[in-house]
Amino acid sequence: METNLETVRIEQIIREAEKGVDYVIRGPEDGAKVATRLVGRDDREVLFVMCLNTKNNVIVVHRCHVGSLNTSLVHPREVFKSAILNNATSVIVAHQHPSDDILTIV
Length: 106
Fold this sequence. Notes:
Blueprint: E1 14-15, H1 28-39, E2 46-52, E3 58-66, H2 76-85, E4 90-95, E5 104-105
């Protein structure tokens, strides 16, 4: 009897940075500026993962989770998945508050 094997393909939805723009993170302020620019004005809490390379350039911004009006519960595996799939050496996790409170970076 022949065994059929299925290949599972892991897909991710990413939001690419603007063409020709290099985002370099030199400190927390730079991370906040990039996050503020890329997060947008969603009506629900959205958690983003910025994946960085060895030179602290943002290589990809992954929209990791969309929550409710005031909550965004994310399992750590979702953050790690984005980092591993993009060969990131470090990550910045950020989310916005729909109430226009200041952006929180963890």
